[in-house]
Known about the structure:
The chain is an all-alpha fold and 158 residues long. The chain has one domain (9-153). 48% of the residues lie in helices and 3% in strands. It has nine helices and two strands, in the order ααααααββααα. The protein has helices spanning 7-16, 18-29, 33-48, 53-56, 69-72, 81-84, 108-112, 125-132, 136-148; strands spanning 95-96, 99-100. The protein has a two-stranded antiparallel ribbon with strand order 1-2. A hairpin with a 2-residue loop joins β1 (95-96) and β2 (99-100). α3 (33-48) packs across α9. It is globular and about 50 Å long. The two termini are 28 Å apart.
Amino acid sequence: xxxxxxxxxxxxxxxxxxxxxxxxxxxxxxxxxxxxxxxxxxxxxxxxxxxxxxxxxxxxxxxxxxxxxxxxxxxxxxxxxxxxxxxxxxxxxxxxxxxxxxxxxxxxxxxxxxxxxxxxxxxxxxxxxxxxxxxxxxxxxxxxxxxxxxxxxxxxxx
Length: 158
């Protein structure tokens, strides 16, 4: 399967597939969590090995703010804290072009992103779908997961 890498195209397709993806979440909720985790981990390794996150940086331009001010201050200047505290997405203060100025010492949240190597994929689907809209790795893993599970969207099933 050819990987989708174009961020604007991913954003557009993500919006078009919002209802489809809700149906996919409902389908997954009835599935075997361990089986899905194993498939997602394998797909993540395959897809992530083909995408250079450092060249993309889209996650850094679309941060979902953490709850605690102390953590949020890692990504924002103190003056911008109240402005962005409840924003859907903002650009990290450490981003320079597409590259992180502190990449080798980046925060744990950044190091773990996009979290596809973690367990409990099914229960984390709301966050996964937020990342699906901004991250080529997540987008491609979710789309390949649909294929691997032989899942087809049935508009009439809703």
